[in-house]
Amino acid sequence: MILPIMAYGDPVLRKVGKDIDKDYPDLDILIENMKETMVNASGVGLAAPQIGKAIRLFIINATPFSEDDDLEEDERTFLANFDKVFINAKILKEEGDEWVFNEGCLSIPDINEDVFRKEKITVEYLDENFEKHTAVLDGLAARVFQHEYDHIEGILFTDKISSLKKRLIKKKLENISKGKINPKYRMKFPLLKRK
Predict the structure, then answer these.
(1) Does pTM top 0.85 for this prediction?
(2) Whose CB has fewer CB within 10 Å in the chain, the N or C terminal residue?
(3) Residue 190 falls within a domain, yes or no?
């Protein structure tokens, strides 16, 4: 089932997610619905807060990045298979220089800004079977993970841009929260005036 994506301004996007265990109700259905929702919105990642649940769960399918000819062959191959569920994820270590990439977010449609993030991270997470994994991610895989991880920490990519850029997009953000946009997918707007 395709779920509505919470728009910028919804309080759930600012909550730090709670850990979940294998008894979380209908987790397999939730994950399947999140995947369907993400694909419908042409996203590469989706975090539970974006569908109204303040829990530490996100999914990533970076396959679309694998078609980027500007990337090295080994990174394209990795991204083609980077389709995972992350439960109770933690970033254990961040390394390397920060690098810039133009990011967007399904909760903040039609706004893209340059964001600096570390190039390499070591992460720990549980998969959908609650098996524990540790992984080292770099490049775009690290970037997408960090973006989704921020969601379960109550952080949005717009928090990481300069105050000047924030002022420049302030009206657009207000319009998103009021539903004064035409997204290409289902959304829920916190400040939409009901008649």
Answers:
(1) yes
(2) C
(3) no
Q: Which residue ranges are tagged as binding site?
A: 105, 147, 151
Q: How confident is the model at residue 195 (pLDDT cuts 50, 70, 90)?
A: very low
Q: Are 145 and 58 in contact (CB under 8 A)?
A: no
114: domain range?
Answer: 5-185
Query: Can 148 be counted among the known catalytic residues?
Result: yes
- Active-site residue, from 36, 148, 153, 174: 148
Annotated binding site for Fe cation: 105, 147, 151
The β-bridge relationship of strands 108-126 and 83-105 is antiparallel
Is the residue at 53 inside a domain? yes
- Rounded distance between C-alpha atoms, residue 125 and residue 130, angstroms: 9
Position 169 in a domain: yes
CATH code, domain carrying 157:
3.90.45.10
